[in-house]
Design goal:
The complex is a heterotrimer of chains A (333), B (298) and C (237). Chain B is mainly α and 298 residues long. Chain B contains eleven helices and four strands; from the N terminus they run H-H-H-H-E-E-E-H-H-H-H-E-H-H-H. Chain B is globular, with a radius of gyration of 19 Å. Chain C is of the alpha/beta class. Chain C has one domain: 3-Layer(aba) Sandwich (Rossmann fold). Chain C has ten helices and ten strands. In chain C, a hairpin with a 2-residue loop joins strand 4 and strand 5. In chain C, helix 4 packs antiparallel against helix 6. The chains are: A mainly alpha (333), B mainly alpha (298), C alpha/beta (237). Chains A and B meet through helix 5, helix 7, helix 10 and helix 12 of A and helix 3, helix 4, helix 9 and helix 11 of B.
Chain lengths: 333, 298, 237
């Protein structure tokens, strides 16, 4: 009974925290300018996408470069649903979740027996080839892609309420809910089981865990999150096209997750922030030094890669780990 | 019948280039237990060097030479400066399994960005050293050109040279021993770290050749070798990752198979075909088609 | 003060202190049997001596030169060879290639060939199987190959880790006989780690008994065999 009450308290505290956070975002959204609001929506989108990586790689230990592809699946599903079936927007997002969950479970089933570099290589193949696939089929809109227009904000919000603010509200709302749910999943026995598998899957099997099933489950949920993020991304750019879901996106996601702590869910917001800030910095540098095009195209990549390499070598488990080690050392002296 | 032969020949050409890439991947895997995704980046860098030399000198082979040397130096450099640091630092926690993979991916991105910043993203072309017009036999022209023949010959020569190196020289023996049983190699007096770096250099040089061959009379860009990496990886997996012969066989099988799909089904399914092959092999015969059932040691 | 001198050697596996203040010495030309039950630390001792593992403190000298902290590859060039546990051959290579491996660090190929010929004399069965892949050999043959490879490097100090492990009694006898033969013939100093205490002490000059990472007895092998208390505690009867 005690335990049950404690668990309920924890969940209640969490709900309270998320509601508080939502309220804060609301206020912030009112005070800042258009560009920041738009970037806020991007950060929200990245948070969801990074959460998918934290779950898949940080918790269940499967390194996959396919989350960018799953985002594409989600984005395209949402767009196709909205455009062809004229459904309400929330249904389009729901379809994004379901379809990418389905694809994720297929990928997971294929990948369950793979580990380490084999998994990474396979998902790399997927990430590289996906734009090619999208280009091939006309119903996917080919290279220019498909429109994804969720329409104007409701009239009742008044004239001052801009399109970007609407994006920000929707993205944040979706992010808050999905992060809340994900947080609960990660702290449940699912999360614990994944970590057991990640640590030593043989030992986990001997303890009665169906590690293949759990791995597939991780892929499924992770892909659902990624698909949702993809739909949110599509919303913010009003478009789905192969160019939005390149290999660079998958790289950026892995980088953001590693930088912010690959098994830390709270870190995803920080990760999202970093991913949004890097192109800004690259922009500023590019404008300083002229030759904007070349620099613009490749400088973000350079910064991202260098950060990734440095962080994976020196803080492979995220900055939190080094901090904890440091504190532990101090404690024992 | 003619189409079958044509497809076979083209497939052989494509497969030979994949063979170089998959060989490089297997070489590094066996010696370091790492799949070096940056291989594509190293090959790309080497090819850009080759491009510079060949376009300035007008001689393809000179460019190829520089590409080989550049690729070898880069490969050795990556092992010496990058991999050793990586293994020293990132060996605990949940990320230990994940770290080398992510690090080589990061390196790939880094090399790509540097190449992009230096040369820009525009497509470059490298002048082919042979004609790309198909051979004419009697009154028909087949799509197999002197360039294709040259590719097959070049790759064959390289494979023969490598086979001699590995099977008949002490260096080759040291390379094999260090890859198969690093501890025993150390106890036998082999400087395994140095040998490993040499292995990486060879892999890098081979990658450079692959890049040059793929890009001759084709487009070169910071992204143009990605497919080569993917197919090289798939070929290595199909061949079993544990043997160099397997890598070559896997690559030829893949090259021929994909070309058949290309010619008989259509371009849209080429990539899906390759991906399906990968998944099928990993599911059905994860040790690769060449394995004797020793089990996949990841 | 030539020979092998080990003084207050301490080795840890992470937090586990595996070897405590190990001290013993072996004169040149002697065969020292290091015996003890499973997990006593015997393999750790050899791996530390051959450079595969780092010591936390202590000294180990061979021929008046410090051994600790030197890489295995370099120790081989000084004449120290280690045959690690588990029939350490490279199964993907042929018998001949495995033997050549022993001399690969040498620039003089003729010397290596000479050594290989000598080893084949010692282990004729290997000579019959030169071009066969090493994974086709039986357990005993593999052990011979592993020892043979070490001998090709013409060591002065030979470290053998449980050569009898997993072998049939008859084969074990053969191998021990051969070890005794070549060590006298070549004037080697041998450190023989064994669980098979009786056979080891029978061919040894001195014995070192290790239990739970500490040296609990050492001395002339003949005395150790006959000491009933020691026998009861460590040799089983």
């Amino acid at each position: 009974m005690e335990l049950w009450r404690k668990a309920r308290d924890v969940v209640r505290k969490k709900i309270f925290f998320f509601i508080l956070l939502g309220w804060v975002l609301l206020i912030i959204g009112d005070r800042v300018d258009e560009l920041r609001v738009y970037q806020g929506a991007q950060i929200a989108m990245y948070s969801i996408a990074l959460a998918s990586i934290v779950l898949l790689t940080g918790y269940s230990g499967q390194v996959s470069l396919g989350n960018g592809a799953m985002m594409a699946v989600g984005g395209y599903s949402a767009a196709l649903t909205l455009n062809n079936l004229q459904t309400p927007i929330w249904f389009a997002f729901l379809m994004a979740i379901l379809v990418s969950a389905l694809f994720g479970s297929l990928l997971g089933a294929a990948a369950a027996r793979l580990s380490g570099p084999y998994l990474a290589g396979t998902t790399l193949a997927l990430a590289v080839g996906l734009p090619a696939i999208a280009n091939q089929f006309t119903f996917l809109g080919g290279e220019p892609g498909l429109l994804f227009d969720i329409g104007f904000p409701p009239e009742s919000f008044g004239e001052e309420f801009t399109q970007y603010k609407w994006f920000f509200w929707i993205a944040s709302f979706i992010a808050l809910i999905s992060l809340f749910i994900t947080s609960n999943i990660l702290q449940s026995r699912f999360g614990r089981t994944w970590r057991a598998i990640r640590g030593n899957s043989l030992a986990a099997e001997l303890a009665g865990v169906h590690s293949s099933r759990m791995k597939v489950l991780a892929f499924t949920i992770s892909s659902a999150l990624a698909g949702l993020a993809g739909a949110v991304l599509a919303m913010t750019i009003s478009l789905v096209a192969p160019g939005a879901f390149t290999l660079a996106l998958s790289f950026a996601l892995v980088t953001g997750a590693v930088l912010a702590g690959i098994s830390s869910l709270p870190g995803v917001v920080l990760g999202g922030l970093i991913l949004v800030v890097i192109p800004e910095i690259a922009d500023a540098v590019a404008n300083r030094f002229g030759d904007a095009d070349k620099l613009n195209n490749y400088l973000p990549g350079l910064i991202v890669s260098v950060l990734l390499i440095l962080s994976v070598i020196y803080t492979p488990n995220g900055p939190g780990e080094n901090l904890r080690k440091h504190l532990r050392k101090k404690a024992t002296h | 019948m003619q189409k079958v032969i044509e497809t076979l020949l083209i497939g052989l050409t494509t497969g030979s280039i994949y063979a170089l890439m998959s060989l490089a991947i297997v070489l590094v895997w066996r010696s370091t237990r790492v799949i070096n995704f940056a291989q594509a980046g190293q090959a790309m860098f080497a090819t850009y060097i080759g491009f510079e030399i060949s376009s300035r000198s007008g001689v393809f082979w000179l460019g190829l030479l520089f590409a080989v040397v550049g690729g070898a130096l880069l490969g050795a450099g990556v092992d010496y400066f990058f991999m050793r640091v990586l293994f020293k630092h990132a060996n605990t926690g949940p990320a230990a399994v994940v770290a080398p993979v992510i690090a080589t991916l990061g390196l790939l991105g880094l090399i790509r960005s540097v190449v992009g910043l230096t040369w820009g993203g525009e497509f470059r072309t490298i002048e082919a050293p042979a004609s790309t017009d198909g051979y004419t036999i009697g009154s028909t022209t087949i799509p197999f050109s002197p360039l294709n023949a040259l590719v097959i010959i070049t790759v064959s020569l390289i494979l023969i040279a490598l086979a001699i190196l590995f099977q008949r020289t002490n260096l080759g023996l040291a390379l094999r021993a260090s890859a198969y049983a690093p501890e025993i190699a150390k106890l036998a007096g082999i400087r395994t770290a140095r040998t490993r770096t040499i292995g990486w250099a060879i892999a890098g040089g081979v990658g450079g050749v692959a890049g040059m061959l793929v890009s001759s009379n084709n487009f070169l860009s910071p992204y143009s070798l990605d497919l080569l990496l993917v197919f090289g990886f798939i070929a290595a997996v199909v061949g079993g990752l544990e043997s160099m012969v397997g890598a070559v066989v896997g690559a030829l099988v893949l090259g021929i198979g994909l070309t058949f799909i290309l010619n008989y089904v259509g371009t849209s399914l080429v990539f899906i075909g390759g991906f399906t092959v990968l998944i099928l092999v990993l599911l059905i015969k994860p040790d690769g088609i060449m394995a004797k059932g020793k089990g996949r040691r990841a | 003060m030539s020979g092998l001198i080990v003084n207050r050697l301490n080795v840890s596996h992470g937090a586990i202190h595996a070897l405590h203040d190990i001290s013993f010495s072996v004169d040149p030309g002697q065969l020292a049997a290091v015996i003890g039950s499973n997990g006593a630390g015997k393999t750790t001792l050899l791996r530390t001596l051959s450079g595969l593992k780092d010591a936390s403190s202590g000294i180990a000298q061979w021929d008046q030169r410090e051994m600790l902290g030197v890489k295995p590859e370099d120790l081989v060039r000084r004449g120290i060879s280690h045959v690690s546990e588990g029939k350490s051959v490279v199964p993907e290579l042929t018998v001949k290639e495995n033997l050549v491996l022993g001399g690969i660090w040498r620039s003089n190929k003729a010397e290596t060939q000479e050594s290989i010929d000598q080893v084949v004399e010692l282990f004729p069965r290997l000579g019959e199987r030169m071009s066969q892949s090493a994974d086709t050999l039986s357990g005993g043959e593999r052990q011979m190959l592993a020892i043979g490879r070490a001998l090709v490097s013409r060591p002065k100090l030979l470290l053998l880790d449980e050569p009898s492990l997993g072998l049939a009694p008859l084969v074990i006898e053969q191998i021990f006989e051969t070890i005794n033969t070549f060590r006298t013939r070549m004037g080697l100093t041998v450190v023989l780690v064994e669980q098979n205490a009786m056979s080891a002490l029978e061919i040894a000059d001195i014995g070192v008994i290790i239990n739970l990472g500490r040296v609990v007895a050492q001395g002339k092998a003949s005395e150790l065999i006959n000491d009933p208390a020691l026998r009861a505690a460590y040799l089983g009867y």
